[in-house]
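Cross-check.
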Amino acid sequence: MAVKIPGSGHLRGRFTRRMFMVGLGQTALMGVLGARLYQLQVSEASRYRRLAEKNRIGIQMFAPTRGRILDRNGVALAANREIRRLVIIPDLAGNLDEMLDLLSRIVSISPERLDAVLRLAKSQNNRIPIHVKSGLSWEEMARINVMMPQLSGVETQYGFTRLYPHGADFGHLTGYVGAVERFEIDGDPVLHLPGMLVGKAGVERGFEKRLRGRGGNVKVEIDSKGHILRTIDKTEQIAGSDIALSIDSRLQRRAMHRLKREKRASVVAMDVKSGQILVMASNPSFDPQRIASGISLADWNQLLTEPGNPLTNRAIRGQYPPGSTFKMVTALAALEAGVIDEKKKSYCGGSYRFADHTYRCWKSSGHRDVDLHKALRESCDVFFYDAARKTGITALSAMARRLGFGQTFDCGLPDQKPGLIPDQDWKIARFNRGWLDGETVLAGIGQGYVLTTPLQLAVMTARIATGRKIVPMMVKADYTAERDLSEPLGLNENHLRLVRNGMFASVNEAGGTGSNAQLAFSDIMIAGKTGTSQVARSASNGHDRRLKWEERNHALFVSYFPHDAPRYAVAVIVDHGGSGGRSAAPLARDVMTDLVQLDPLKTPSNGPGNLTGDQLGEGEPA
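Predicted model, tokenized:
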């Protein structure tokens, strides 16, 4: 007889419901797992396959070899030297602090560098390699290679460092390279590489894209510790292009040697037909190797504060009143305006009176009756005071810009200063005041607001010598290809002749202010013009040695030669040199002598005296 347990049906019901709920839960869970598995293995299989491949496959970029900088004869001014360096990939290194501590016990790494690596790891993608140390010795490389199984994410690489074999003689020209700053990243992934260097100044910066080249990469298989198992694919780098400058290193070294006699000075020499710059020297200078090899902050600050500002290339960044070298601008503007002609004379009694103000001539006793030829030969201020006032600032400033003032040139040299050619609009914008005729009087002799650079003075001289719109260039070029690219200035040829003859007289006729620039070669005659720009009112006699050096006038001289068939132009400025005739003209003479002796535009050179006017006028550079 069956015994019925009280409440057993109720218990069986509850048990059945619980089993049902558990089963339902299990079914739901399996459904979720199944859906997730379907998503991982079917729906998004390709995505996770790529991610897995990314973890297994690493793509490493390597920097291209930087192009060399050469002079016009193939002499290396900036080259490369192979070095060994240590890098770390934070994403593969595990505990970065511990790994760096281990590395510092294998090779010598400064605490400052270790801190810099840690800071960089926090601020950039962890997969980007970080440069730890450059210039590893063979012994250090061996120690690292022995420990490599324990060094996850650590690699040794071969790279290049920049070499500047000629030191300060070319510091301003070549410039230097340095580490990439954030603002310099232009989308090129190679800029993220450890130890990557980019141009910071000079030609290195001006031709950065051409010198940099294109980076290569290698696809490798790596294990969980970041060790390379095998190479899968490789894309070769494209080295940067070598750049042959128009500079002649022999002339440059001689010019720098000559400039060292002066406290501060600069010189530019160029081919008047092609615009190629042959010499660009500025003293004091700096050794770019000192910076490129890794300069400390203390040494960098010292370099920034050194007397004479050695980092400043005065040839393109020094802005000076042009003084009497500007008188050719005034002469051409006045001739074109019909204010003066070949025969028109002015009287110079030692001063010029206008609007209740007296403007003095440098020769207090005066030049008496003066025509254009005499005014240029003896640099009479009064003649050009009057010519400038009658011509007006609008025509004067237009002629100045036509001859190359008030502008920069796209020649591969960054950070040029434009100088200043003032006019009425500039005066209103700058001072909210109208232009005064008395300011035109001062501008006529290159004083007042007018500012220029040595490069602009050389361009002006080349344009006057040729009558063409010569544009300076730093890259060596075939003269025959460049000769016809310079368009005519559109100036009256007779007006140019008058100015050229006045410049010739300044150097070669009695009473000329530039006689100290005469060359020792009887068959080569030069044309030139002195300039003395006033620095302080107390320096009216700017060459007075009793004045403090910084109160003395700047000394300037511009020239071209041979006079009858121009080929070379030279511009010189000696900071606080006192008188253009006394200090700038002899310096220019020495540079021109070197041009004659080395004759960089003709090969082979037959020695001093071979640069006759006929030869230079018709000869082609090699």
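Residues 603-622 have pLDDT under 50 and may be disordered. The longest strand covers residues 76-88. Passed to J.P. for a second look.
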